[in-house]
């Protein structure tokens, strides 16, 4: 396991906390049940709210038996479009760039199955649940629109969050015409649902025109503005407490209608209200990974080099809002090619609006890119790894920029060695295990952006030599409370035990968004900068005071470590933080810091984390059962702050890849459009028994351009590469290219074996 | 309509009066007794986040109607540690990093405690994975969970042998 990677000399002081595999700082709270998630809160006089969801996919609600619901003992209020109190914002408005149109009982229209059509508030959860059931809605139903061939496509202006829908370079048609071999394939990926273990929940309590919200949130300070807009109050009147998130994966970055309705009910009834979604209510109102149809054309020359790459994705969105899985953009930065085109079309279905879900775009796009590359390697008669090495991108294929750092060759080499890739037969269907199962090996390249957003932090050194650091960050399981704490302690030159870390509360400095694999880099940079700012102020006190042993050290500088400032040229001369503060008569000294990318670096370099994933699968030749038996991933993602937690993120991402490849899909009824498996038993996510022996290798990488700390991110890259590696291993075992995900038993039994 | 029942929860005898027969054991613990360690992930017995021990056996408390458990002894995650001293399974989950977000963790740990008490072969990773598959971890911390169960099981059985000797 990789330890701390030394920084290039002198660029930034870095202490002894980062790089250590500390256990989670919140571990004891989590193993004793003391970690408080949103729905665990019980303010006095609490009311329970339950939404009633539409049972048709499109149409109008023509009747709700409100009287029956109100007559149920314990029911306090039934809110429908008839009596919903006004909101300060039109539901079609977007206060932030992560705001989506949502349902707040604005009218009787049904836009998807599961859409909230009423809110029942009661003294007990049981009464609210029964009240919602008693509404027995009737509808004027219209036919549901669903399926890539059932509706017309349109040309979108943007995909993902504001990314261009079409990007390219060179002449793809000429490249394809010049190719000696072409691979033209069509793949499909289904709608997938985040299914964080913690269902979305909110406890809302008003005090005059101020409201306090206990709700899991991946973007605390930004969300205060969004909630404030709904209620016509200043953002500072909204307090969000989100000390723990029970998983987010993108679904808790965006405000949904149910939250607004619960807050509204609390204001209307002048009592605190709790709303916790049922699992089935998470299939529609809170986003999902949109379905895609992807068409790829690859041209290859005699040397096995790409002459052109064309990736066309048709992404499905809702009838009323747009979030288009930017899958084709996964092909922009991975392989060298003289001609490259990434483009998107869109279709509208009667479904809830998709949204960002762990590696949005990259997961679906990488799944297909890596599968198509495998098909191309076979067409070229080359080993899949050798084929990828021949098409290794020395510069970013899309922009032509140099990479900030790219240790992908090392990832390929280390991963292949650990897996034992050498000697893999080129043809499929060649290997069997001792029980007769078909064995296949596949691999894929992993790649994910290394972005930074904006964050702020404060650090306060206290008279007793301890410190407090603060930023409104979010820990949804990635380990932010630990990794950010480590970085903050290093910024202050203190042991982590001397530093108190406050986060997860919107009243703190804006910690930015926990998403896009950029939280550690962004909030971490802000915390480190706040610490160094506090130390700089402390240093000024010392070097300017003739009573200090550091007096006059201003020119040579001082170093902060273990709670003391040392003269840079004479470690014998030092003084503790507490001594400096005491002499100055100060109870504390504060610093502030910001985290954001240096625009010049961003302009000059392309910034990505990279990796290589190798998979072994075993397929029962009679039953078609597919089991992943081994997974090895080697990843290079800059400086690793905590190898224990980073590995866990990568394992988790690879397990998501396994789910994508073999398990996860929302199955819609073709007539009604409803999801038939809107529960966590029939929507399969990986369980412990599905998960094989896994290996994660942290490949050392020094990236001096991403940020002064050299931090990239590891939250999402694990899913990329893995899906393709598993699909390719299934093909290698059986000769079957399913070309749709998830690959299942039916694919193994109903298609002729090519091998 | 009031229904009374007696439960021993984490060693403490509790006389409980319910005004509603629909209350599940999970909702009783969480919403009325404010023991919120057990989590509601699905309310359908599909995810395992609500796992508790009833008379020493692990069950999904979301599928149990409270009134049908009169007289039962219940252990929840809150009752596992002895003061500040963590139960060996809790300690192992921290050491092996058997969680990320922590939401499924109380259920995972109670399930592991129940599993070890069942006397199943907890030294075999394959068996542990199978026997822990009623507890979903969406974060995917399964490697740590499996290692933690094996480690804690070994320590607990070593402790028992010491006690017996």
Automatic annotation (TrEMBL), chain A:
SMART domains to which the protein is assigned, alphabetical: Ald_Xan_dh_C (SM01008)
Family matches, as InterPro entries: Ald_Oxase/Xan_DH_a/b, Ald_Oxase/Xan_DH_a/b_sf, Ald_Oxase/xanthine_DH-like, AldOxase/xan_DH_MoCoBD1, AldOxase/xan_DH_MoCoBD2, AldOxase/xan_DH_Mopterin-bd_sf
Record domain Aldehyde oxidase/xanthine dehydrogenase a/b hammerhead: where: 32-143
Annotated segments matching region Disordered: 1-24
Pfam family, one: Ald_Xan_dh_C
Gene Ontology molecular-function annotations: iron ion binding; oxidoreductase activity
Protein name per UniProt: Xanthine dehydrogenase family protein molybdopterin-binding subunit
Organism: Jiella endophytica
UniProtKB/TrEMBL annotation, chain B:
Annotated Gene3D superfamilies: 3.10.20.30, [2Fe-2S]-binding domain
Domain 2Fe-2S ferredoxin-type: 3-80
InterPro entries linked: 2Fe-2S-bd, 2Fe-2S-bd_dom_sf, 2Fe-2S_ferredoxin-like_sf, 2Fe-2S_ferredoxin-type, 2Fe2S_fd_BS, Aldehyde_Oxdr_Iron-Sulfur, Beta-grasp_dom_sf
Keyword terms of this UniProt record: 2Fe-2S, Iron, Iron-sulfur, Metal-binding, Oxidoreductase
Pfam families named among the record's database cross-references: Fer2, Fer2_2
Top-level taxon of origin: Bacteria
A single GO molecular function term of this UniProt record: oxidoreductase activity, acting on the aldehyde or oxo group of donors
Protein name, entry field: (2Fe-2S)-binding protein
Species the sequence originates in: Jiella endophytica
